[in-house]
Design goal:
The chain has helices spanning 2-6, 39-54, 58-72, 78-95, 99-111, 120-130, 134-144, 150-161, 165-177, 186-196, 200-211, 220-232, 236-245, 251-263, 267-279, 286-298, 302-314, 321-333, 337-349, 356-368, 372-381, 387-399, 403-415, 422-434, 438-449, 458-470, 474-483, 489-501, 505-517, 524-536, 540-552, 560-572, 576-585, 592-605, 608-626. By secondary structure, the protein is an all-alpha fold. Helix 2 (39-54) runs antiparallel to helix 3, helix 21 runs antiparallel to helix 22 (387-399) and helix 26 packs parallel to helix 28. The chain is elongated, with a radius of gyration of 37 Å. Mean pLDDT is 86; it is low at 1-37.
């Protein structure tokens, strides 16, 4: 053992002392000639030692300890005084992080045969666990043979804190073998070890032992640990049952059961319990607030998340950096820039701005809200930029079609030796399509192909299909499409759009029907893609059928874009009266583009009457716009 090798009884090296000397040597202290060494004097010295040790004056405490040794020798209570003093000194060494001095005290205790004392063993175990020497602490506990659970509680708790759950459970079993009876402080640590390993079987064994101890069956501390253990192990029914049976629930009880449901994504139950907790007038801590606000964010209730944030502030709850990130996330999703700036100001005042995660959230907020100036300023303030930081700013410029700035930042990322992830590449690829910069797009495609971690990534495959489709390389896009094991709505929409733009509406229709066959429900964007494809290929009957199915089969309310596609479909096919009928009955105010579309179709098909009528309407719209 490490401590055995280093434990020797040489003099202590105390930093407060100008010159090194033994702490156990006789001190030059003047005593009155008539002063007697009796119990009263030793008591006073022991009190003074404790006070000095408690206040960090270790050197003075050690001098007093030398006096206690010399004056307590004649007393029958000598071991008690010495053990008590050693306990205080060990605690002080732990608090002051003085490992060598503590080891020397341990060595002295061994020399005096006091190292297995019932009062000293817990202090020795606590001392060694403080410095991370848990194996040494285990040896001391195992060799002590005392029946008090305190040293074992300290040991098991330390194993759990270090993530050494198997050893924590082993220590608990060894404790039982030595006939040491666990108490209310033993079980929570053991149950946590079971929970972290999802060891439900052993957790249930521990639960049975708890039930066999009448004093623990209703112990709140233990019952809360049981709720948490069953919840983490997935037995939500038992966790809820134990929670309901707790007569006097505290904040920990409520937080434990709410966390159980939240960790499983069962937000309805978590929200319900949160409201019940408020009705019960329980004190809510920041963790509970953040859990529920984060749940609102995850379930798309962004307004609800911001409402909770306001309630936290008005209730005097000090927002931490997690709450700030949740609030900024909610603001960015609903483009609530004003509220986001308020939270930004609060983050500056409470120093949350120092966290890089907060700065990343701010970059995302400003980028999504179109305030790229502030987004760029915050980006430059981040010292340790990671890939998330770069993704936030690059996506902001990319979504605003600021391709030059986005490419510049991407090059800067590569020069900074940051490895781009799939999100980075998915942000850059659409820019290549929009600016028809296929050279860069192909380079990125090659980069993706050489990385095993990107193989089969749905987001990247969709981005590549969109890029090649938009730039007219439909065959390459189809090759990627056919190689994909999994496809989603975006995959099919991109391919349908690509074939439609090439005038190959028949293939686009086949892909749309294949998508429906695989139970992928179209959205409004997919409907625009298929209607546009039918229009360009003059597939009137198919286009009309898809338009009719929008409401009846797909529950999509036609928008202005869908009606524009129908005007284009009928116009290209020469069905100009049908096109005019669509415009008159659609329930939307026609745009200039729709009138221009109809005029172009009339010119192609030689319909002067409808063409002149459409031209007059176009002039009216133009005049209204210029007013």
């Amino acid at each position: 053992m490490k401590w055995k090798e280093s434990i020797k009884p040489p003099p202590l090296d105390v930093r407060e002392k100008p010159e090194p000397q033994s702490c156990f040597a006789n001190e030059t202290i003047v005593l009155l000639p008539d002063e007697k060494t009796d119990k009263c004097l030793v008591d006073c010295l022991a009190i003074t030692l404790k006070d000095s040790a408690r206040n960090g004056r270790l050197f003075k405490a050690l001098r007093i300890f030398s006096l206690i040794q010399s004056h307590a020798l004649a007393s029958s209570a000598y071991p008690v005084f010495v053990v008590d003093s050693l306990s205080s000194l060990l605690l002080s060494c732990a608090n002051l992080e003085l490992l060598p001095q503590g080891k020397q005290l341990h060595a002295q205790a061994i020399t005096w045969g006091l190292h297995k004392s019932q009062a000293l063993v817990p202090k020795l175990v606590s001392f060694y666990t403080t410095f991370g020497f848990i194996d040494e602490a285990q040896y001391i506990a195992a060799e002590s043979n005392i029946l008090h659970p305190l040293p074992w509680n300290v040991l098991i708790s330390s194993y759990v804190s270090e993530g050494r759950y198997n050893e924590a459970i082993f220590a608990y079993k060894e404790m039982g073998q030595k006939r040491v009876i666990p108490d209310r402080f033993t079980y929570p640590s053991v149950l946590k070890a079971c929970a972290e390993q999802s060891n439900l079987e052993f957790g249930r064994e521990v639960h049975e032992l708890i039930n066999a101890t009448s004093s623990l069956k209703h112990d709140l501390f233990v019952q809360n640990a049981l709720v948490s253990m069953y919840g983490k192990c997935g037995d939500l029914e038992t966790a809820r049952s134990i929670f309901e049976e707790i007569p006097d629930k505290d904040e920990v009880s409520w937080n434990s059961i709410i966390s159980v449901y939240a960790s499983r994504g069962m937000w309805d139950q978590a929200f319900e319990l949160f409201e019940s907790m408020r009705v019960a007038d329980m004190k809510l801590n920041i963790i509970t607030w953040n859990t529920i606000a984060g749940g609102c964010l995850r379930t798309g209730n962004f307004v609800g998340a911001l409402k909770l944030m306001r309630q936290m502030r008005t209730g005097g709850v000090r927002l931490d950096h997690v709450a700030v990130i949740i609030g900024l996330g909610a603001c960015s999703r609903i483009r609530e820039l004003k509220s986001g700036k308020v939270i930004h100001g609060f983050a500056i005042r409470n120093a949350s701005i120092e966290y890089d995660h907060v700065k990343n959230a701010l970059i995302t907020l400003y980028s999504r809200c179109g305030d790229l100036t502030h987004a760029y300023v915050v980006f430059r303030l981040v010292d340790g930029k990671n890939v998330i930081t770069w993704n936030s700013i690059i996506s902001g410029f990319a979504k605003r079609d600021m391709s030059e700035e986005a490419f510049s930042l991407f090059r800067e990322l590569l020069l900074a030796k940051i490895e781009p992830n799939y999100v980075t590449l998915a942000c850059i690829l659409p820019i290549c399509a929009r600016v028809a910069n296929l050279k860069h797009g192909r380079e990125i495609h090659g980069y993706i192909a050489t990385r095993a971690e990107f193989r089969g990534n749905l987001l990247l495959c969709n981005a590549l299909i969109e890029m090649y489709s938009r730039t007219g390389r439909v065959l390459i896009a189809r090759r990627i499409f056919d190689s994909m094991e999994k496809r989603d709505l975006v995959t099919y929409t991109s391919m349908i759009s690509g074939y439609g733009s090439q005038g190959r509406g028949g293939i686009a229709v086949e892909l749309f029907e294949e998508m429906i066959k695989y139970n992928i429900k179209p959205d409004d964007v997919a409907m625009v893609a298929i209607l546009s494809a039918c229009g360009r290929s003059r597939l009137v009957s198919q286009g009309r059928l898809f338009f009719e199915k929008m409401v009846s089969a797909y529950c999509i309310t036609p928008g202005l874009e869908h009606f524009a596609c129908m005007v284009d479909l009928y116009g290209r096919a020469g069905l100009l009266k049908k096109a005019k009928e669509v415009i008159l009955t659609m329930g939307y105010c026609p745009t200039e583009q729709m009138w221009a579309m109809l005029i172009g179709a009339c010119r192609v098909h030689g319909n002067m009457e409808i063409g002149e009528w459409a031209a007059e309407k176009l002039l009216e719209v133009s005049k209204q716009r210029d007013r």
